[in-house]
Amino acid sequence: MNDTNLPPDAAAADLNSAPAPDASTALAAAEAKATENWNSYLRAVAEMDNYRKRTEREIDNARKFAVERFAQELVTVGDALEAGINAGSANPGPALLEGAQATLRQLHRAFDKAGIKIIDPAGQPFDPAWHEAMVAQENREHPANTVLSVVQKGYSLNGRLLRPARVIVSKT
């Protein structure tokens, strides 16, 4: 019998019974590719994990040392204040006042370098976003809601409120 006289099921059985050499080669190539992809995946996962850990360390260090420059500036202010106190105890009077004023100027320079701005709104309109009204006083010389005096200065850090200025406000 030749192949043309075989029933259709028999011809299909002959094709499936012995794998062709091309199929086993293709299977081996696919398995090799799968192994390569799996290894690439594992490397990518490890790289992402290392990246996450490195980023966490950097963020942690940024939090710990964010105020380092400001702290260095404050150390010199502390030194100046201590020197002023020591000089004032030996020679009270105008020297003590001058030393305190010099220390305050040094502190303000440190604030400027750190992006800290002083909020001193005397004579300005009251702004509840930046000011805290302690007292409302009747005053006919100033329009209503004008800051008459500052009880305690406020501070902002790079445009964000640290502490509102505590003020006395006019009312009619």
Q: Would you mind describing this structure in some detail?
A:
With 172 residues, this protein is α+β, with helices and mostly antiparallel strands. It is built from 4 helices and 6 strands. The strands form 2 sheets. Strands 1-4-5 form a 3-stranded antiparallel sheet. A 3-stranded mixed sheet has the order 2-6-3, with no helix packed on it. A hairpin with a 2-residue loop joins β4 and β5. The chain is elongated. The N and C termini lie far apart (120 Å). 6% of the residues are buried. The model has no long low-confidence stretch (mean pLDDT 84).
- Please count the beta strands (DSSP E, at least 2 residues each): 6
Strand content: 15-25%
Report how far the terminal alpha carbons are from each other: 120 Å
Weakly predicted, low-confidence segments: none
The largest sheet, given as strand count, sense and whether it forms a barrel, is: 3 strands, antiparallel
How many distinct helices? Answer: 4
Give average pLDDT, whole number: 84
Order of strands side by side in the largest beta sheet?
1-4-5
State the shape.
elongated
Q: What is the helical fraction, as a range of percent?
A: 55-70%
What is the alpha-carbon Rg in Å?
39 Å
> What is the string of SSEs from the N terminus onward?
HHHHEEEEEE
SSE-based structural type: alpha+beta
